[in-house]
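Hello K.,

You asked for the raw outputs rather than the summary table, so here they are, unedited. I folded two proteins back to back in the same session to keep the settings identical. This is the first:
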Amino acid sequence: MPKSASRGRPGPVRRRSPAAYAHQPDAVPTPEPPTQIIPRALDNTSSADNRTRPTPGGAYRLVGTVLSMIPVTARVEAAVFDFGGVLTTSGREMIRAWTSAERIDPGTFSAAIKEWMSRQAPSGTPVHLLETGEMPVEEFNERLAERLRTVDGGKVEADGLLGRLFAHNQVEQPMLDLVRRLREHGTRTALLSNSWGAAYPWHLLEGLFECTVISGEVGLRKPDPRIYRLVLDELGVDPGRAVFVDDARPNVEAAEALGMHTILHTDAPSTTAALAALTALPLEPT
């Protein structure tokens, strides 16, 4: 069962049976095609200009940020944010700092994560079970430690393993300020996070979100479509009126398939510009 809300945290969304969302179709019709915004460095189309382009699924890709290309009816009224890698330092930075500090061979960590988290990973891997709250943190620490080795071939201490990893995870103040500016302009906001059992810094997130959906508390994880429907239900908005910001492409693609606008996050400036385009709000820091 979910833990009680911490200071500064909106009331957590309570665990529901996944069957509650089983009747809902994976694709939800929307009045306007959603917009997928991808930083130029990640876009694989070849063009010298910044234009929206239809994608196979009927959505649009915005290369760069062009305010005039977003129809008024497509602008959003709610923004849903991932936590790790969006509101915090990137996962790569965190892992690099952790493996360096503990002299862990990064290749052993990468191999385990690829096996447990890639698109080809079978269901029910240790990461999947951890994120849905079905595997205790202590058990996951043991499973992960078994796969890790130090640079000189030694074993890695399992006790407190995830705690030591996430000690290198720092919030990104520009992103918190961005969420705050959205709220000040009346945009609905929510946090949607796949949890690895780490404690969230709720005192730093105070007042930023109307609701928080944490995977381990609701028994669902991204990219399961049901967890996106859950946060949309909590906000009371249609998919076509919401934008989802995440740093993981599979999670972004799942949200887009439901009709949400999406932003593949790489840094605060590009996400700020993209959200300004979608909301028609002055979001740049002053």
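The second followed immediately with the same parameters:
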Amino acid sequence: MKCMVMAGILSVAASCAAAVTFNEGTQATGGDFPNIPVFDFSSPSVETIGELSFGVNTINATLTGECVDGPFFNAECGEDSPSVDFGDAFTFVVPDRGRITSFLVETLNSTGTLLRYQPVLFDDEGDTASRFSTINGNDSTPNLIFSSVPPEAGTYLFTIEAFTNFGVTGPYSTDYTVTLTVAPIPLPPAALLLGAGLIGLRVVYPGRGANASLDPRPQGIRHGPTVGAR
């Protein structure tokens, strides 16, 4: 299949690459996303999913550990033990002329301590692009509704961390899936009109390439002598 860009009535649709599916256990460096978010996006310790594709992209991963009594309102679920998988962080890239139109986080196969999970999305300057509502085990966020313009082309950092209420301790484990839908940004009206005009010219004058005859009369028909010719 050829990689092509098609001009449509409402948008430009790119159809080249298949949607991205990334599995932490087999594709992440060392088989695991890093626990602690590192806001230096160029750091080699940050796992990079790479550029997303137009369409639905899926990242599958797991969190596992044990919560113990903490000094504050929440129990400690692994922050003091780097070997415990209490959180994940990874970056991804939204392609040029694309933007995220749907962003879902779902926990699956959750066992052990009843936990809540906090997903957060950061832009490339470390600012919070969006904070999801916390979710329980075997639950999902509603489709993320962005407070302003949906994230467009650029690099973003996603983090998710496990925590529980004070006094709730014990081991835990959950799988989770991040589902991102990327769509092309619609062309401005002026560009659409220009594209429609070019298509119209092609319809009116088909087959008029650079080497085509400049004779405006229909081709393939024998023409009589031009008036005044001898």
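Residues 116 and 213 are 72 Å apart (CA to CA).

Happy to rerun anything if the numbers look odd on your end.

Regards,
P.
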